[in-house]
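User: I'm writing a short methods note and want a consistent example. For Phosphoserine phosphatase, I'll paste the sequence; you return only the structure tokens, no commentary, since I'll be parsing the reply automatically.
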Amino acid sequence: MVSHSELRKLFPSADAVCFDVDSTVMREEGTDELAKMCGIEDAVSEMTQRAMGGALTERLPLIQPSREQVQRLIAEHPGNLTHHIR
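Assistant:
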């Protein structure tokens, strides 16, 4: 974690910025949707519930999605914004 003042200095020069918006801005947990598409929803969903804070590195190796599966997920299941997000 960096302080707010450090972040204000770093942000303008960043090449990319990533935000985790699953189950916050978006109503779904994207990794769970990908696992459903790959046929292992129950195992990954259980992991998600156990470790809602940083288990992406644990869940993705279990799912092992191909690039095509990720692209298909994005095309077939565009995220739904949480009701209070405009």
